[in-house]
Structure formats: structure tokens, C-alpha cells
């Protein structure tokens, strides 16, 4: 960790308006600590967020930030990283923002393997709009708009990521502070698209997937001896609907980020001969 940067340097002077006890507090604290531990600071960090409770996070963190529109945080983050590869880009979202209207962008961001991290606060509910079923809600979860449950299986974002060719897939629990920070840190340090789905309980609208539920149900892959470099083992974990897992599920040690594939280096002073002078042509591909 840089002796000049503390995680509190990433805190803004704006007080969060999340409900008391919201899992997003722990998720954000872990993100800030992981950024500091990896040697980043507010001056080289760009946070992009979408819509929902998670979308407020750029206001609460002291860094460069952009609060985008619903489901579009990932293409914005991609554009930032292509234009400024020297920045540490972290995209934050929720299960509604990322796996519903933003699902198409999610799949293609995974496929492109741009060197940035994507932290999704998955509370299995639409919290900001007062408790409707989300893409990851349980099939029998009763809400104001689904009084008998959605009656369809929840989206499995980990499976989507693996099928799209993800180079890093992980899952954490916002209340397990040290493990959450460790997992987010691993995503930041990964060369490529670091995807972390975070169990971030909603204490107001979801009385099923609570803190106690996850504490009782979680299986820590590190303690279980899981090998994140084993693609088949990762598939078995991801398709196991009977357990809740946390840890690094899959990591491709040979991952080559999109920028490196196209001659756009993280150190802008070392762009090789023949590479574009700026990222204009590369950014255009995403719009």
C-alpha cells in the first residue's frame, strides 16, 4: 500500500443516503480499501456508476466520477479506459442496472476484456424504486409487482460471464469486510476485465436474502481449496444452484487485455510504434 494514500482519502464530503444497514456501505468501503492497497489514489481513479442505489456511489467517493444512465455504465467505463488507459477505471452497478437493461453491455464488456473492474451490488431487489423483483430475485420471491413471485428462474450473472469468455469472475459478501476487500483487490490487479458480484443485502425491501442468511449459507472457495485457474471447476461452482459461494471463481492467468491487444499500453508514454496516437479509433468501435 502506498504510504501516501489511505482508504479514507477516497471518501467524499457527501454523506450516503442509503438506508441504515444497507450492504452498499460495506461494498463501498471494500472498494476504497482495495484501491488504496493497490497503490491507486483519487487523482488516477475514475468511478462510473449507473442507476439505482449503487448509482450514488460516485458521489460518496472522492475521485473522478460519472453518474450515467440506466444500464450504460459499462460502455462509459470502456470509453474512459480507451481514452485514458493510465487511469484506474472502476464501474459500479446493481443487479437491475447490470443484468436487466444493461445485460447486453455486460456480455460485450466481458467479451472485450478491457482492463477495468466491475463491481455489482446484488441485493436481488429493485431498492431505489421501492421493492420490485429484479433479474436475480428468487423464483418465488413475493414483491409489490410479483405477489406470487416472478415465476421464472433468476439470471445467473456468473454463468453469463463465463459463457462470454470472462477472464476473471468472483463473488463476495459486503459484510465480510476483509474477504470482500481481498476479492475486489484481486479484480483490480487482474490484467483484464475484473468482474465481482457482491452479495449486498437490502435491509428494507428484501427480507429473504439477509445478512444472517448469507452468514449461514456462504461457502468460501479459498477455504474449500478451489482452484480458480480450473475452468471446469469454475463451471461446477457457477452452476451449483444449491449453495452461495464467495471467492475468486475463475481467473485466466494468461489474460491479455483489449488495450494490449491493440497496442494501447497503460503507460501512455510507451505506446509502441504503429499504434494510434490517441484512442479515437478504438473508442469509436463502442458507439
Short summary of the structure?
The chain is of the alpha/beta class and 287 residues long. The protein has helices at residues 23-37, 57-60, 73-83, 95-101, 103-112, 157-163, 177-189, 211-217, 231-238, 258-261, 280-284, and strands at 45-49, 64-67, 88-94, 117-122, 168-173, 194-199, 218-220, 244-251. The longest helix has 15 residues, at 23-37.
Structure, described:
The structure is a single chain. This protein has helices at residues 23-37, 57-60, 73-83, 95-101, 103-112, 157-163, 177-189, 211-217, 231-238, 258-261, 280-284; strands at 45-49, 64-67, 88-94, 117-122, 168-173, 194-199, 218-220, 244-251. It has 287 residues and is of the alpha/beta class. It has one domain: 3-Layer(aba) Sandwich (Rossmann fold). The chain has an eight-stranded mixed beta sheet, sandwiched between helices. It is globular.
Task: Write the SSE topology.
Elements: H1 23-37, E1 45-49, H2 57-60, E2 64-67, H3 73-83, E3 88-94, H4 95-101, H5 103-112, E4 117-122, H6 157-163, E5 168-173, H7 177-189, E6 194-199, H8 211-217, E7 218-220, H9 231-238, E8 244-251, H10 258-261, H11 280-284
Helix pairs in contact: 1-7, 4-5
